[in-house]
Amino acid sequence: MRALVVGIAETGVAVTQRLRREGLDVTIVDDAPAATSAYEARRRRVADAGATVVEAPSADELRVLVQSADLVVPSPLVRPDHVALVTAEASGVVVRSEIDLAGERARVPIVAVTGTNGKTTVTSMIAAMLVESGVRAIPAGNIGRPLIEAVDDNADVLVAEVSSFQLAQSETFRPHVAVLLAITPDHLDWHGGFPAYVAAKARICARQADDDVLVFDADDAEAAAIGARAPARSVGVTTSANPARAFFRLDGGALVFPNGNEIAHVGELKRALPHDLANALTAAAAAFEAGASVDGIRAALASYETLPHRVALVGEASGVQWYDDSKATNPDATLRAVSSFPSVVLLAGGRNKGLDLSVLGRAADHVRVVVAMGECARDVAAAFSSGTTVVDAASMRDAVRLAHELARPGDVVLLSPACASFDAYDNYAQRGDDFAAEVRSLLDESMHP
Q: What structural domains does the chain harbor?
């Protein structure tokens, strides 16, 4: 059997190594090979596995490769209109996502998490709750390690973060527990519009059956609509002030089961911002459905540390707190973060992903100053009315210094860009690290003038 893998990134490497171990004849292609040591290392790994490597193939070469293959596996960011995928569809060649291959080979149940924001946090929390319950759970997928690498691990449950890119190409993926967080506009430049993005997310539960479970955000219209028509048993989660009693919910300062029994008190959590409560409740619901105990869930909630670049406190001085929320690469994530604080100096901007940044204006009541930066600084500035002070920054250092000058005691200075980082950084983590370094340098100067 012959397979064509598209993309020499980590997922493509993992798929190639797995298929070669299974005895398949594998060719792997890359449209734009990078002149970096990381790319060269990945290239060596697939070559060492015995795969044929083809770099920068023409469209005609790709068509020939697809037509001679039995299986095509695209890396997650390969667009649906890629020549290889269009040719495969026209030629009747099977296309499978990496998560399809992983699901078909998994020997234990899979818990899969998707949504627009909070995926990594909820995935890691579910795994921690299961581990605290004595269940051997391994986090994988978009959280850092391809799911197909984890399927042979010594585990009882695999907990996978899955993206819209992976789901859009999936045909057989069927997690035992699917988790669907709120769906708000993101990656529209890739999907071509919000309906296609929502449809990709809905594929997480499309092939479930009545002995599977879908945990969904009942406070989100898109997730709730998918939950209402899902083939699996649906379990709602809400933090609404008027919750449906059949859902996992907040009640009297506690996280509770649908029957009203307490899971944990809010005071037991290390942090309890609104999105923290939603994440904790969702993770608890999914973990319980996957076999976690109440004691294990409670222990994980009490010890869980905020992940880097997700409204993470960097420092505090002169009554001003500085938070790194560089992971907020879409407006909804920024709105959620800003709404957690009464008075914000907001650092926002970067590269837009085809999203409507004007919705940031909904946070105007919480934002006292905006420091706009990056390629779409003008769009960020336009989102706020004349009642909000807006200044432009030429760099992260400039942005931090301007925020320091404009902040008052009681303010939160929040890096929550609402945009991708690729206009100036390799990724959101590098952007957040730069922000944190500039903040620490500034605070050190303030303490030691």
A: 2-95 (3.40.50.720), 99-303 (3.40.1190.10), 312-447 (3.90.190.20)
